[in-house]
Structures are given as structure tokens and as C-alpha cells.
Amino acid sequence: MSNQGNDELQAVDLDLEWVDLLMSAKQAGIAAEDIRRFLSEKALQAM
């Protein structure tokens, strides 16, 4: 039995979490670009 359907559902859940995060940040007055920059910096530090 394939797990492809589960992977697709998990991707949708993850996408919805990002949308929720960005919408919450916008309501808090944080620009999406600021979040992207922060996450990019953290990703580079992790490497």
C-alpha cells in the first residue's frame, strides 16, 4: 500500500501551518519578509 496520499496530506497540513503563521505574524505587525529573512539566517547557521 502506498503512503503517497499521506505525504500529500502532510504537505497540505504543513502549508496550512505556514499560512496560519504568516497570517498571525501579519496581525502582530510582523512582515512576512522579516520572517523569511529570520528563517533563512537560522537555516544558514544550522549548516
Automatic annotation (TrEMBL):
Record Pfam families: SinI
PROSITE patterns per the UniProt record, alphabetical: SIN
Domain of life: Bacteria
Domain Sin: 5-43
Protein name: Anti-repressor SinI family protein
Species name: Paenibacillus rhizoplanae
